[in-house]
Each structure stands twice: as C-alpha cells, then as structure tokens.
Structure prediction request, 474 residues.
Amino acid sequence: MAEKGKERMLVSRIEEGTVIDHIPDWKADTVARVLRLDRLARMQADVSVVILENVTSKLLGRKDIIKIDQWHVDEKDADILCLVFPSITVNYIDEGKVSKYQPKVPDAIEGRIKCPELLCISNAEREPVVPRFATLKRDRLLQCHYCDALLPFDSVPEHVRT
Amino acid sequence: MEPSTDFVGRDVVSARDFKREQFEHVLRGVEDLEKHKGSLDGALKGRLAALLFFEPSTRTYSSFQIAAERLGMRVSGFAGPTGSSITKGETLHDTVKMFEGYGADIFVIRHSKMGAARFAAEISDTPVINAGDGSREHPTQAMVDLYAIKRAFGRIDGLKVGMLGDLRYGRTSSSLAYALSNFDVEITFIAPDALQMRPEVTQLLKQRGVDPRKERALRDVAGKLDVLYVTRIQKERIPDPTEFEKVKGMYEVNLEALKDAKPSLKVLHPLPRVDELATEVDGTNYAQYFVQAAGGLPLRMVLLNLVLGGVS
Prediction:
C-alpha cells in the first residue's frame, strides 16, 4: 500500500482515460511507440500522457505505467502490445469507474503493422492493400497474408505503421 | 463440399494451397493430353485470357499465350511494362479492375511484388493464376517441375531431391518445395547461407513432416541425389550487389561437379540459365531440363482448362 501511495504522490488519478499497467521496466517508450502516443498527443488537444518508469511492483519487481488522460486506447492496439509484453494490463476509466481489460494475442492483425518484406505488395506505393497478418502463437511469429514473410512478436514495435 | 480436385473457378496463387491429389490430378491431365494430343484444342473457344505481365517474361508469357490460343481463347494484356500503361504508373489494382470490365475470364499475372497475385485474387471474382510474384512463388512452374520428375521416374515418392542455387530469391524453388512437401521425399537445400531458403518455407515444410537438410556445397551430397534442381542466381532480386559478386559462379553444375552422381540422376532447371549449368551436361542422361521445359505448354493448357471448366 505504501508503494501505491508513493505512486499516487507522483501522479494524481485520472477520471477519464486509460492506464496501461504492468509494463516491463524501462519499456514504456516502446509501448508509447506502438500506441503512437506522440501523434495522439499532438492531434488531441485535451489528451495528456504521463509515463512512469521503474515503479516498484509486487508482480514484476519493477514496472512502467502509462496514464492517458481523456483517451481510451483501442483494444486492438492493446492486443498488439500483448504480443511484445504479455504482462500488460489495461484499465479503462469512465467517470472515475475502472474496468479492466486483459489484452490477448489476436488470431489476426489487420492494418496496424507493416510487412517486414519491403518488396511485399502490402508495401507498394499507391496499391490499396491493407497489410494483414496471421499469428502463429506457438512460434511467437506473425505471418504476412500476402508474402508469407515471418515477423517475430518481439520485432513488432519496429514495424508499427505510423 | 466440393471435391478437392475441383479446380473450376479457383485461384492458383500459391503451391502452398494445393494438396497431393490436386497436383496428381493436374499431372494426370497432362499425361492424358500427351497421349491424346489435340484433345483440348478449342476447348475454351471464345473465352478471354488477360495476361498481365508487369515484369518482362518470354517463356512463361509465351507458354500461357500459346496454351490459351490452342484452347481457342482470345488473349489480351501485355508481356512486360514497356509500352503498357504500367510505365505511366497504373497500379495492379486498377489494371485488374479495367480488364475485369473488359470481360476477362481469367487473369495470368506476373508482378515484381511478393503477394501481388493474392491481392489480385482478392479484388477480383475472376480466377487468377500466379505466373510469378517477385521472389515468392511461381506455382505453375512447380507443377511443370513435378511433371518432369514424374516423367523421369514414374513416381515422386521415395526420391531424394536437391535444390541448388538461389533458393532465397528464386520463386520457383519455394513453389517446388511447397509442392514436394505433399509427397514422401527427402529434400536438401544446397546454397550459401546468404541464399538459403526463406524461413517461412522451411517452417511450413517442417509442419508437413518434411525436414529439409541444408548444405553449403553440392559435392557433399551429389552422390546421394535422384533429382538435382538447379536455379539461376537472380541478381535483379538481390538487394545488395556485393552479395551477388560473392556467390556468383560458386555453384556451377558441370560434369566435374557430377562425377559422383548416380547414373540415374536427373538435373532439372527452370531456365533460362546463365553460368550455373554447363552446356556440357546437355548431352548426358542427367539432362532433363529440355524435357521439363517442353512440359510447360501442355501443363498450362490443362490448368487453364481445369480452372475455366472446359472439356473434362
């Protein structure tokens, strides 16, 4: 409880928005990149983002937390985060009430990740192709629907579409 | 549930998508056509084949063109980007939509981008045959290759197949590997590390119970093989030209390289060759590649006929 109190001292609670918790320590910047929070913050005047790094955690020892005021992260984006960081949890806050979302590895991902194969049709300029991937959960790989290229879960942050 | 050998209206995008009985069905069709030459002539009279070759091609384009014409089809499209609207920047999407509007009954597409044929198949209700998509696949060549093997040995099961050369960027190798994974074969990939088979291909093979061996040199395995599938180093597909210079000429197949080979070995090559397959092999019993090439026309006739539901 003391640690929880300490965290409260750092940042006040939010009434509306998203808290992404149980991020492995010092990985909040990767989460921010996957969620494209920089763009979000630029586009939404009333959105604030707070990143807490290296906070003590019963579960992980140390962890990062991201609080986003006035913005609900899409569940599909949270699921993509889960590919890289299975430990994360997402709390949505509506008028002060918290509802938890446990991200899960999706069967397929559409539109959010670029194919690592530069010569894939999904990377072709001007072709109206939406990148699609199937998840090979046992092997922790994504497979491009078009060119079959494989992308390890851990490499997903470098291939998020901007 | 339609029978698995039913090809009518289906796309031929990847050799991954076909099962053993479907390959065997096509090969039986080719055998029948070879026995009864002319039996498919005019079978698709009046139908329109759109051959959309965004990459230059001579042999594949010609074989599809002649096959379609022998079947009685009208042929439209282009054999390469030069002189077509592609040079003006027209997309694959728009080209497909345009020819669909012109009443194409089938698309045969070659494109430099991997997965182009799958994309075309998604945006069109008209069947699509992949005639090569970048360095990914060339499924009809794999069928031609299977037919050459079947013709040489009377079977495919039980054979030891070595695939040599540019396996990473060579689309025929990956399609043949997928096709062979439906049969009881031993596969050895012979290539320098930089040109070894792509991981997605070996992964699918393993899922299907075929665990391919990887070798760096032909000499280590030449004596054990029944089939040696030789491929060209495709320098246009190698992003780093210095990589190409390092491997160029390292994998030449000549009589010296085959000195330990079984007398029954058959050498296949999808052609054209550069310097990876010496002409001194041409006059030997090893050479199966011209027989293999000759199978391209009847095979493509049979495939077009199956997909468009012509003569049964």
Remarks:
- The CA atoms of residues 18 and 179 of chain B lie 8 Å apart.
- Strands of chain B lie at 48-53, 74-78, 106-111, 128-133, 160-164, 186-190, 213-215, 227-230, 266-268.
